[in-house]
Every structure is written in structure tokens, then in C-alpha cells.
Amino acid sequence: MNDSFISTDTPVDLTNCDREPIHLLGNVQSFAALVAISADWIVQHVSRNAGALLGLDAEEITGRVFSDLLPRETVAKLREKLGGTSHENSVARLFGFDVFGDGRLFDVSAHQSGSSFIFEFEPKLREGAHDELAQVTPMLRRLSAQGDLAGASEEAAR
């Protein structure tokens, strides 16, 4: 296996996917936009498609204070969600969230990566607010309450 990574502008296929630099910021699937900020909420990195999906041009917002770009209520909610994460591998999610206060809804994922906070914004395409996590969490609680693998398997099948 070759340990050197392919360049980020190289198309990925089955012959080189083992060398794709998925740990590097800036590469994100086309249906979502990524914004990385520092601990003092300065925009560090923005995916190229942020302009099309969010209306935030990467070149214009890099280096700016993130809280200057969003409504106060949105920043408060994002800070609250990040504060609820218990460790670096925790992910906070908001579903059907009106990020800009203009009626456009997004599913938002937020987590910490090193000293940066990473926000991923995916436009909400389904009608109405639908919180997938609200459906999954009770199921996971029922599974974890089982005392053994057989009980967990039975509950999962139910």
C-alpha cells in the first residue's frame, strides 16, 4: 500500500481511493457546504460550494468573524450545541434549522477537530421539519438497556 496521498484535485476512483486525503479540510461532498472556524470564531476554511449552497463566498468570508455572518440567534444555538458535546469525537446536530432567518432550512452538523470547529450545512430538501435523531435516540436507548447480545438483537429486530 502506498502511504502518499493523491492531490486533492485528482479524481478519485477504485484504483486510488485508498490514498484519498479525507482528513484534509476543504473537500466535502457536493450536497453540503463546510465552514471551519477557530476557537475565537474566525473563519479558517470554507468549501468552494458555500457560495452556491449558503450564499457565503469562500474568499469573502475567510478571515472574518463567523458571528458577524449569521443572525445572533443562530450563533447562540450553534454555541449551545457545541457546548453540549462531551469530547472531540462528539457531533452536535440540528435538523431543519433556519440558519439565516430567511426560511431556508438546513441540517447542520457541528464538531471539533483539533483546535477548529467544523460546521457542515446540508440544505433540507424534504418538506417540514423532521428530526431523524429524535427517532433514532429512543431506539438506541432501548438497545443499550438490554443486558446481553441476545436481548439487544431481539430489540433491534423489533
Task: Please sum up the structure shown.
This protein is α+β, with helices and mostly antiparallel strands. Helices cover 27% and strands 20% of the residues.
Walk me through this protein's architecture.
By secondary structure, the protein is of the alpha+beta class. It is 27% helix and 20% strand. It is built from 5 helices and 5 strands; from the N terminus they run ββαααβββαα. Helix 4 runs antiparallel to helix 5. It is globular and about 55 Å long. The termini are far apart. 16% of the residues are buried.
Using DSSP, what is the number of strands? Answer: 5
Number of distinct helices:
5
Helices and strands: which structural class? alpha+beta
Most strands sheet: 5 strands, antiparallel
Q: What is the element string, with H for helices and E for strands?
A: EEHHHEEEHH
Query: Within the largest sheet, what's the order of strands?
Result: 2-1-5-4-3
Helix content: 25-40%
Spans where pLDDT lies below 50 across 5 or more residues = none
Note the gap between the termini: 42 Å
What is the average of the pLDDT values?
80
Strand coverage percent: 15-25%
